[in-house]
Amino acid sequence: MTTPAIALRRLAVLLCLPACTTWRPVPLGPDTHFGRGAEVRVDRGRDSVLVNRRGPLVMTPRPVVVATPRVVGDSLLGRRAGSQTPIAVALTEVRRAEQRRFSGPRTALLVVGVVGVVGALAAAAVSGMSNMNLDLRPAGSLTR
Fold first, then answer.
1. 55 within some domain
2. Per the domain annotation, does 140 fall within a domain?
3. Which residues neighbour 6 within 8 Å (Cβ) at sequence distance 6 or greater?
């Protein structure tokens, strides 16, 4: 069973993930090396040919995210992010390539925002409790 607190924590984690990274331009060439676990978003500009296990496919101009990328000869090789499907994109078709990287300013903004929201909720809770008239004596000691 998922309690509201657990659901709130899960939501906070999901919101934190994209806030800590950003896409930054990266040049593609024969000597380009990517770190472990890297992802590269490739914008091909126009309709182009994308090669996978089954052969060539004509693709629409939407960007493709390539996981475990590597440049071999005149192609960017890897697998489609989120799957195990191998893909290859000709470097001549790449209009722009961007790599996901850590973003310090975005992370700092996220931390400040989370601390602000938690502080505001705590202040509201304390304010609400101070407005309550609670008689906290033991039940046997109540007199009229």
1. yes
2. no
3. none
